Amino acid sequence: MALFFLNGCGSAQPGAEVDPETGSHEQQLVTQTVAIVAAADTYVSAASPATSFGSQPTMEVDRSPESEAYLRFYVAPVDGTITTARLRVYALDGSADGPTAHDPRIGGRAWNELTTWNTRPTRDGFSALSSAGAVASGTWIELDITEMHISTSAFTDVHLVADSTDGVTIASSEHPNTSLRPQLVLTVQSADDHPPHPALPITVSSPPVVFTASDDTYVSADAPTSTEGGFATDLRVGQSPDREVHLRFDVLGLTESVQRAVLRMYVGLDGTAGGPAVYATQGPWSEMSVSWNTRPTKVGAEVDRLPYLAPSGYVDYEVTDLVRGNGNFTFGVYGTSGDALIFRAKENWEGAGPQLLVWTGAPRAAPTDACMTRQELVSKVSELRHDTYVSAERPTTTFHREASMRVDGSPGMNGFLEFDVQLDATPVRRVLLQLYALEATDNGPLLYKSQPFDPATATWQNPPAMTDLVGDAGAVKKDQWVEYDVTSVVTASGRYAFGLLADSSKGLSFATGDASAKGLLDAAPRLVVVTESAPFCSYRGTRPSGTTAWVKQTNNASAERARDTAPAPDGGFAVVGTQAQARDGEYWAEQTDVVTLHRADGSVAWRLTFAQPDVEFRKVTVTALGNVLVAGEYRGTPDLGKGALPRGTGMFVMKLTPSGAVDWTRGYTAWFRMDDELLDNPMFVHDLATDAHGSAVVTGGFWGKTDFGGGEVDAGKPFPYDDEYPNSFVLKLQWDGAYQWARVLKTNAMRGTQAVSVAVDAQENITVGGWAGPGTDFGAGALAQGGVFVARWNVTGDYLWHWLLPTSYDTVFADVRQVAALPDGGVAFTGDFDGRFTFAGSPYASAEPDDGYDGPREPFLGRLTSTGTELTLRHFPMGTGIYFSGLNSLTADANGNLFTVQSGHGGLLGLGTVGLPETVAPERPTVASFSSTLQTRWVRVFEPLQSPRLTAVTGGVVLTGDLGRSIELEGTWYTPTSRRLDLLHVKLRP
């Protein structure tokens, strides 16, 4: 039953038919093999005790001279349970008695590719797992290491130790032949499931360009020298005998970036329930001369596979990540079952040979006029009114409340959907119906226009009337978005209904609106309308300020998100963020923390991943010497590279060298005492900064007690309770991690004092901003009244001054969000308010200042002198009924220019209309620059980026955001890898 799969876990229903070949809905247990290439490896030799061999293409394991090999694999999350684990290494020369694999345990993990014999790790004497025995040259050594405890989202280390003086030479992870590199091969078994929040498809704006194969052939193991496949009208694939299909496409003439690419193949007269898989291939070949013996090599992981293929049907394989532009592309199609299959070749008399369908962005040119006039392709999802299906087995039953919509030819089941479409005067480019498949089928449903219907009365006996055929779908795999182009149908505003009629006796289900509404599966049917906006100004200011210097995009297979960025002294910048531990991993699931250092041109200098569970990297800063400081939170006793952190729940600070090595880590925990027991309290990191001497300055929050190194301190609030918020701390560590000083900022107010932002100036004074409750003491005595504040201490922690804007329920609600240190020693700050206040003698009022409650906030940007005197402030009135997220990511450059990023509303910054209306394209990232006197210098609007943030670097400012859809920037389209999330970095001139 389809509803079973919406429940998110467990095996198929008892009695369900098991098909070991496919990942289908009939299957109770999925068995898969996962091959992982070594992330690092090296060997050490007693003959060269001070030499490291981590960059060598081979590794030696011998007793004369004594040599050991160390291998490390990163095991990402897998869908199921690891039942077997095997280490595979390729022997370049043989041995009468091959090596033994050892479990190095904790002590044996202290190595890297620079390790030598003199610095090699220790190993438990009872760590042997399995031995290879005799090994022939040019063969794979496979060692069973299943007895090891292999954790996902973590690194697994294996040591190879010789058993004799007849050593063996093996290929390393640096070997030029990538197919010979070490592998960790896992057998994973799991029950059927669906991701609760599947990634949405990338909406493409143009029809595809179709390329036919320039070469196609098949080769067969039972005729290893035959080249007849190149002349054949059919392409044969299977495992008995082994037959492979090889294809080449010459992609030429594309003028825009690729947004999507699929390999389409047409099936012969026989279908299959064990469809083949597509891989990338490498190596020279020609269809006229290639044979089994000379065929190209399969490379990388499986690109795509659909289990069920219908006779005389077609199948689309997703190859977007391989086809990124013009070029020559080769693919191999490999059997996954004993069920042989025929595809039509380009020489087939019926035509319909292999095709490569490539969708690109709409043609665009970089704007050249003063306001950078451009147009945006705007995607809007129309409202789903209702959906249902009807069943011949239950002819009088309605199904409009169910979480799945079933479509089947036997027994008969038809699906129906209806949308409410509202179009404006802008031209419609495409309209796409997107449905999420819960099962696989060999031939997807036919889509028809339908009459609008009442779901409460729609039954098999009283079905909505279907009229014109609109589209068809080929083979469908489980958890796939099926897309129909309905542009010709949706031409005006109104109600549009569609019917789904089975084109196969192997039915399937689609997720419904109820599946999303009930929290089972966030994959409701979507009707996406793509329109082209009217021309608009995307920039106001004086060029070249605010124009693009360069753009860089990450390309990791799993989703990546940025959390914080910071400038580096050489003009580069650092990023701390997260990466999903599985390609379809959920954003709320355990993530791998990532620290990346970029050079001044945006390229990556190094990238470190930390897969330890229960660790959250929050903030990053870079010292004048190029050391990278990171702060975050943790639970337990994680080891970030320098030993386990103190047990509990707390925060940490970590220092990385300019080359990316962990220099030191410091952990701090909070607690409260109940009777004779100490119980953990959480801690939070708000912000992180550094000074000219490489110190770490951290602000954060905590409950109860903690000890930063200067003795036990009390937060003034014992533990989390109801709506209570924690109080804050300011902590300074010197360059080597030693404690310098700390200050606790506490109040009895329910909200708690919040020190949310910190900056350090050229004199190494520390400036903190946020909200403080009554009783907070910055160093001059307890505050009589609470409010938003900016406070400053000198290098040794002595109080210098504070500024306070009192807040109260009858006057003003406000927050200071960020502070920035200016070259003259002054301070800039951003915030928002609702109510009335006075600054530097001038009154300010929001749109609804006297409503008596915390209503719509309006942003402000202010300046204080180096002594805390009010200097100037800009209020940006929003107007009644407008909600605005505020000025974010405040940063300052060496000239005192300020930069902020906000969500939309660029026209309110003082330079005129910029960007599309919020009703058309809401919350577009809007970057603004202000002079030291707070006058707006320039404003620029971009297409959607999630969580945008800014970093002031030498020669400009870098905008970083999470790229989750195709966007166009100055004539170039950028599309996220694997249809997930990439990071996009855009350097703008100052």
TrEMBL record:
InterPro entries: CBM96
Protein's UniProt keywords contain Secreted: yes
UniProt entry tagged with the keyword Signal: yes
Pfam short name (any one): CBM96
Keyword field: Secreted, Signal
GO CC annotations on file: extracellular region
Subcellular location: Secreted
Domain Carbohydrate-binding module family: 33-187, 209-358, 384-517
NCBIfam families hit by this protein: DNRLRE_dom
Protein name per the record: Carbohydrate-binding module family 96 domain-containing protein
Species this chain originates from: Myxococcus fulvus
Lineage: Bacteria, Pseudomonadati, Myxococcota, Myxococcia, Myxococcales
